[in-house]
Specification:
By secondary structure, this protein is an alpha+beta fold. Helix content is about 50%, strand content about 15%. It is elongated, with a radius of gyration of 18 Å. The protein starts with 12 loop residues before the first helix and ends with a helix.
């Protein structure tokens, strides 16, 4: 009998690549970024894009006041729930 420890699988790299670049992945990332952004005060923003390998979304400061707030209070980490 095979156990999980003995199970072997082959990763479909082309399929994973398609998944990482898909519209569905972009939408999922945007949805999570919006949740984080909604927990942040004014001065924070979100950007999204596509690299050669995957979709990406980032949340960060947009103003000096927000950057100062983040340095003093770790606001971004707190908005992420960490």
């Amino acid at each position: 009998m095979k156990t999980l420890a003995n199970y072997k699988f082959e990763l479909d790299k082309a399929g994973v690549g398609k998944l990482l670049k898909s519209e569905e992945m972009t939408e999922a990332l945007l949805q999570e970024a919006r949740k984080v952004l909604n927990r942040l005060p004014h001065g924070y923003g979100m950007s999204s894009g596509m690299t050669t390998q995957r979709a990406k979304v980032s949340v960060g400061t947009r103003t000096r006041a927000a950057a100062s707030d983040n340095l003093k209070n770790n606001t971004l980490l707190k908005a992420l729930g960490r």
